[in-house]
Description:
The complex is a heterotrimer.
Chain A: E1 4-9, E2 12-17, H1 22-28, E3 52-55, E4 62-63, E5 74-76, H2 80-94, H3 111-119, E6 143-145, E7 150-153, H4 162-170, E8 176-179, E9 186-189, H5 201-206, E10 212-214, E11 227-232, E12 241-247, E13 250-256, H6 269-272, E14 288-291, E15 294-297, H7 300-318, E16 323-326, H8 333-347, E17 352-353, H9 364-372, E18 388-392, H10 396-399, H11 401-412, E19 417-422, E20 434-437, H12 443-455, H13 460-466, H14 470-480, E21 485-489, H15 491-494, H16 499-512, E22 518-520, H17 528-533, H18 549-559, H19 572-580, E23 586-590, H20 594-597, H21 601-610, E24 613-618, H22 623-627, E25 630-633, E26 642-645, E27 650-654, H23 667-677, H24 687-701, E28 704-705, E29 714-715, E30 717-718, E31 745-750, H25 766-769, E32 774-777, H26 779-784, E33 792-796, E34 801-808, E35 816-820, E36 839-845
Parallel strand pairs in A: 1-5, 16-17, 16-23, 18-19, 18-21, 19-20, 21-22, 23-24, 24-25, 31-35, 32-34
Antiparallel strand pairs in A: 1-2, 3-4, 3-5, 6-7, 7-10, 8-9, 11-12, 12-13, 14-15, 14-25, 26-27, 27-29, 28-30, 31-36, 32-35, 33-34, 33-36
Chain B: H1 18-23, H2 28-36, H3 39-49, H4 61-66, E1 77-82, H5 91-98, H6 100-114, E2 118-123, H7 128-143, E3 159-164, H8 174-181, E4 205-209, H9 210-222, H10 224-229, E5 238-245, E6 251-256, H11 261-268, E7 278-282, E8 291-292, H12 302-307, E9 316-321, H13 326-340, H14 346-363, H15 371-382, H16 390-404, H17 406-413
Parallel strand pairs in B: 1-2, 1-4, 2-3, 5-9
Antiparallel strand pairs in B: 5-6, 7-8, 7-9
Helix pairs in contact in B: 2-6, 2-9, 3-6, 5-6, 5-7, 6-9, 13-14, 13-16, 14-15, 14-16, 15-16, 16-17
Chain C: H1 5-14, H2 25-36, H3 41-51, H4 55-64, E1 76-81, H5 84-88, H6 91-102, E2 115-120, E3 132-134, E4 137-139, H7 144-156
Parallel strand pairs in C: 1-2
Antiparallel strand pairs in C: 1-3, 3-4
Helix pairs in contact in C: 1-2, 2-3, 3-4
Amino acid sequence: xxxxxxxxxxxxxxxxxxxxxxxxxxxxxxxxxxxxxxxxxxxxxxxxxxxxxxxxxxxxxxxxxxxxxxxxxxxxxxxxxxxxxxxxxxxxxxxxxxxxxxxxxxxxxxxxxxxxxxxxxxxxxxxxxxxxxxxxxxxxxxxxxxxxxxxxxxxxxxxxxxxxxxxxxxxxxxxxxxxxxxxxxxxxxxxxxxxxxxxxxxxxxxxxxxxxxxxxxxxxxxxxxxxxxxxxxxxxxxxxxxxxxxxxxxxxxxxxxxxxxxxxxxxxxxxxxxxxxxxxxxxxxxxxxxxxxxxxxxxxxxxxxxxxxxxxxxxxxxxxxxxxxxxxxxxxxxxxxxxxxxxxxxxxxxxxxxxxxxxxxxxxxxxxxxxxxxxxxxxxxxxxxxxxxxxxxxxxxxxxxxxxxxxxxxxxxxxxxxxxxxxxxxxxxxxxxxxxxxxxxxxxxxxxxxxxxxxxxxxxxxxxxxxxxxxxxxxxxxxxxxxxxxxxxxxxxxxxxxxxxxxxxxxxxxxxxxxxxxxxxxxxxxxxxxxxxxxxxxxxxxxxxxxxxxxxxxxxxxxxxxxxxxxxxxxxxxxxxxxxxxxxxxxxxxxxxxxxxxxxxxxxxxxxxxxxxxxxxxxxxxxxxxxxxxxxxxxxxxxxxxxxxxxxxxxxxxxxxxxxxxxxxxxxxxxxxxxxxxxxxxxxxxxxxxxxxxxxxxxxxxxxxxxxxxxxxxxxxxxxxxxxxxxxxxxxxxxxxxxxxxxxxxxxxxxxxxxxxxxxxxxxxxxxxxxxxxxxxxxxxxxxxxxxxxxxxxxxxxxxxxxxxxxxxxxxxxxxxxxxxxxxxxxxxxxxxxxxxxxxxxxxxx
Amino acid sequence: xxxxxxxxxxxxxxxxxxxxxxxxxxxxxxxxxxxxxxxxxxxxxxxxxxxxxxxxxxxxxxxxxxxxxxxxxxxxxxxxxxxxxxxxxxxxxxxxxxxxxxxxxxxxxxxxxxxxxxxxxxxxxxxxxxxxxxxxxxxxxxxxxxxxxxxxxxxxxxxxxxxxxxxxxxxxxxxxxxxxxxxxxxxxxxxxxxxxxxxxxxxxxxxxxxxxxxxxxxxxxxxxxxxxxxxxxxxxxxxxxxxxxxxxxxxxxxxxxxxxxxxxxxxxxxxxxxxxxxxxxxxxxxxxxxxxxxxxxxxxxxxxxxxxxxxxxxxxxxxxxxxxxxxxxxxxxxxxxxxxxxxxxxxxxxxxxxxxxxxxxxxxxxxxxxxxxxxxxxxxxxxxxxxxxxxxxxxxxxxxxxxxxxxxxxxxxxxxxxxxxxxxxxx
Amino acid sequence: xxxxxxxxxxxxxxxxxxxxxxxxxxxxxxxxxxxxxxxxxxxxxxxxxxxxxxxxxxxxxxxxxxxxxxxxxxxxxxxxxxxxxxxxxxxxxxxxxxxxxxxxxxxxxxxxxxxxxxxxxxxxxxxxxxxxxxxxxxxxxxxxxxxxxxxxxxxxxx
Lengths: 846, 427, 158
């Protein structure tokens, strides 16, 4: 085999691929060579010299992490010379390392401790005072905050440069660097800017010593006292595998659980630090019901009886169609299924949805089209096989931070090129990515222009309507034509007044590109896919089949009932609109907060107020909850078990780390107890019992092959009937409405990169990372308005007005402003109206 | 003194001007090389001449060139290493200041030989005047058609960039030098891959010293046999010896390889100043092991010095008389390496700092008897364990100083008065 | 805005001079140094923007090189080599002589902002020791007399 080399390590033969290092070969044999600076994800730098081994005929010891294995090499890891060399290296590393292990947060899990124990000298020969880097001359502090979440103690640093390499090589950011030279080298962010890469937490996890420590863990607990529970991150659709470190019912930190196919050992700060929201003491502790206009604490018995009783009477008064259920995309498969079952079977309605942040909820037809693309999914790890990546309508860094790292990896390997189109520049487009910024909601016109360009038709009109120079689109068409392309379609494509047409156009574009081109939809939410598959929309039944006569009869058999409600049913928008007009009897909110996030605060508020009875099941008291008649405390993810389907299509189970804190309860238990009070006769003792029932349904529907899946996460096999896509001949460009003289700016909004709705804001460090709502505006626009950064401004639309601080961001498209949605106090949705597609605003300096 | 090659026109005031240079036979070698030789033949010629690198390691230049991969579609780069900063060495500076065209001519020929079209001359940042001289020389040369497109009608194109350093000794190490040109912190790289395979921007790169390259026109003009006949069997040609320290006439002396160290000090250098006796000599720049006064009957070439346990290095001969305190002298060297260590690998970064701390303690009269062995041990732990030779360069003098002058170290650590000083009068 | 239009223009010209843009960092550092006599973070940030590279990269690389002062120094930056060859010819006493003449310690700047005194490592002038570098120029084979004259001349050139 010419591409392989054979060598001898410690008298054992081993064969490795050409180009692999001596260390790789040793690891293959199970021989552990100690390392500090080596990391399989990073280019070797051979700085720490801890992995020195002896190679026969080589004059010096060689660093095994960086030297490639060569045919016939004879390597000795444990020869006297090699052991002496490594001992010498360790002595050097220790010669200035402070002896503060008793107060160091890394104590007990420190690689330097481990290596010293195994390979190090027995005593110290340094009598000089150890050099100290003091950052605060006045107080003589050894450590200081590098940024909002990370503290640096330079004295403990052993210069493996893993942190700077992770930030530069993997995250592609320029937030952390090494300064000065030689003995005086220090790590630091940019002098005028705090260290706040959205992947900054990885530097802490990968620091071999206690030089970098997270604010949220500093001086809190000794690591060996903590229990570790494997789990899955709930804060986006990537489904990163995480480990929860906890003691009793207290969650201390979240580390990566290294799934090489999903996260490759990396987490974003939202997941790592934001996930600690579960530990907040501002959580709802007890069930509450409204008595004499006030929400008061009560027992579960009383609360559930109260809710069930009210629902019964509403059903009698309004019929089942007067009751609606609004869940959310973070619910586990089991919870979603149970919610769908209680709605359809127990209450008897198809009024169920899980999206409450979308203005344009996709229709059943569109939902089914979205599911169809699942038949061919590309795992993150295969992104590098595509020549081009075309990303439309999303800021992947916000919706899928870890998927973005895979994209960056594909780019930096030189194999792939990325093209990103969105209505503004994003962090991702700062990397070597070609980007196009179209008008907000210009997706349809942009896709039409790209399609026409690929077809060789005139694109002038559609390009103009999309706000992009036609030459630019022509150029992309030229570059993409004929190449194997991965199309990543963001939420702006289907959460769009022309969602269905967009998907049709996308399909047509995909067909025009090179062989092997595929559309992938990175769903925005940790279990968006699970919610679609397990029946959380009116038109799709549990198991992923369309809500029609035939499929209903299959479900009926499983559920041992005669009939299910006929097709129909309302989605979130319809439910809220109906309720606001007083046409709904009851609304059940399961982890959803329409008042806070539905893009029309007036309608959402009216809906909740005008529904005769409303109940919210949630972890923190939300704006919606405050208006409800009953509020039930829902346990957050560390306290629940279940399964999620990531946007990659990976089914992953997670176990609870500990029982629900306070009086909160797991979601499935709340739904079950409520269902039982409404006449449901079944019972489950655990989510896995629910799962086996779901599995049998999946079997009957034949859409999802769950048998492939197991703990640890595997790709689901899915089979959906081909959909009919429209004939595109009649597609015409449609100019968007223009801003008026009174309201000259277009308002855009969305999640900020560090936050998931308002949940993560409850985590300790997050308020420091992302301190509050701001109005982001392009500096050019601001200059024209004589606006300075930090000025207080009033933003007004026809619906209302807000007051907030302004911030400059040149990534925002001129003529538009951006408000992050994650801050309840901002009430961004009070500016929006569900009746108009675009929102125009005016900005006044106060 | 008749055999000068590189310094032949040292007394000519206008040798740095192209007119004078051409008058004195300049750029004939370039014409000859372009006209009469194919690139491969030039590599063979240099191989045959026996020319060895003058930067310190003494690696055969022709052999280095022949390591370049054949038939690659990547560009090949040539870097002229003019980052001369080894204490005791000051030859390249003079070569560049007095005769920049000699270097330039050699550079163009070398680039032609290795099929390189872009050369970087990496000049130490402090040498502002050198940079001026070279830059003027490049302008002159291009106006004569020696640099640029289609040189002398041969179809060979060449661009030469002057790249000024920023004050870092480590940049004289070839991998650090490349990192420096690439615009990053100049941390040395682990070899392999060697620069000839994967160097600047991962392209094949050849790095040669100023003195090495300056020899090339003369080899072309006079033939490989002529060059090989000068000096010793394996160390051929002339060498510029940089004489400094306690000699009456310090300075650069171009002499055939293999001149005796005694001759160099007493004949050319005029002997020791103020009628002191000789105590020790560092024969090849600060990094090489020191020689005692009784060891100076040695020929100054790569092999002979290696036999004596030292090295020719960059031929920076530093002479110390018997009023010198060797501990203090060593501390001067070690603090230099501590200051210049890039900080990448642990043994060098921590080791140089540790050695300096020990030496400073000794000089302050706080040395313990066991510190001498400790210092020796620390140094021996650095050797061979670092990324680049800077660690070795720092450790070798320490070990040799202790080996040769152990009594001074023992004395100072035993609480005795130093045998000398490093604080010499400034008149 | 710190950089002069001229320097900015020169930096822009360096953008595509080398096979990779980052390679222009050291030349840019020299340009900034030539204009200000030191490299401040603000100036470097601006230079990085003009060159079109990350500000952090520019600052990191700048911090590695000791040729450039990072803070404002005197009009005449006197750098005395005190390495072995110069020390053998009296560099240590040259330093103390300068200290007493200028009334400052190594690392200090005279109150009138005229002189800053540093010791540095080998400047490649060992054969003409002792020596010092003042701004860009070398002054070699120094004697007390020579130093006196030089200082006098600089003081008068104020």
